[in-house]
Amino acid sequence: MELLAAAFAMFYQFGDAFAFLVIASAGLAVIFGMMRIINLAHGEFIMCGAYVTAVAARTGLPLALAILLGAITAGLIGMLIERLVIRHLYHRPLDSIIATWGISLIATQGVLIVLGSTMAGIGTPLGSVEVGGQTFSAYRLVLMACAGALLIGLYLLFYHTRFGVLARATIQKPETARALGIDTRRVYGLTFGLGAALAGLAGGLYAPTMTMVPTMGATFIVESFVTVVVGGADIFVGAAPAAAILAVIKATLTAGYGQLFGQIGLLVAVIVVIRLLPGGLSAWIKKTGR
């Protein structure tokens, strides 16, 4: 029984880290992988989703619907920002970085001024499960299932729907797609909105587990960028293996030496990948698979 409990504890720690990396980085990976936009406001979309989820849940809305509302709100705001700001900065990466950084500062300070330095959160639902005398959060197990469903859903969306075909065609050959009658501006707007909605979904899913403060998005930023950089440009090839490898590193170091060493391990991993595999895991997997 002790061996079973230890094995489940290891699986739980790995699954928790894997779920966090996948859910936190999905929106950033879509916007960067599909549009080549480095979105420094990613954390603020996460914060938006979390705040909307908390407010909606406290008004009595079921948590699942509150999370969905948070994701939709973040997606709509993302589409508005794409229309007003990002659309004018395509193919200007440095300008887009500065613009999204400015949006990030405005959003954080705006929420701080309007809503204050903290906000009442919502409790973690579903209680706990006991395995071998140890208790584990049942909600964390749900988050692991959500991460797997998210990866499958994104794959089906981009490879088995008309929107996915149009989005990939627009990103790879925008001039050709435009010549064939595709409304590329609309596709860009929808793709950016999808990335923002995924960030809002991350905020909504983790809202019951976190303290609600305007800077809460910063908690997700490091892991998100590390996962995207290690995974490479093709999110469908690189995101899952990158999250799995980083989850092993983080879970092992955190269990043995504490959370600080877990973070250090992630940063060392991304430095090694940039040095040895500049295109990330996706480029390496594609190269070795030919």
Automatic annotation (TrEMBL):
Keyword Transferase belongs to the record: no
Keywords: Amino-acid transport, Cell membrane, Membrane, Transmembrane, Transmembrane helix, Transport
One Pfam family per UniProt: BPD_transp_2
Main location: membrane
UniProt cross-references to CDD domains, sorted A to Z: TM_PBP1_LivH_like (cd06582)
Keyword Membrane appears in the UniProt entry: yes
Bilayer topology annotation: Multi-pass membrane protein
Residues passing through the membrane, by range: 6-30, 37-57, 63-86, 98-118, 138-158, 187-206, 226-248, 260-285
The organism's place on the tree of life at top rank: Bacteria
Subcellular location: Cell inner membrane
Family statement drawn from the similarity comment of this UniProt entry: Belongs to the binding-protein-dependent transport system permease family. LivHM subfamily.
PANTHER family named among the record's database cross-references: ABC TRANSPORTER PERMEASE PROTEIN (PTHR11795:SF447), BRANCHED-CHAIN AMINO ACID TRANSPORT SYSTEM PERMEASE PROTEIN LIVH (PTHR11795)
Annotated protein name in UniProt: High-affinity branched-chain amino acid transport system permease protein LivH
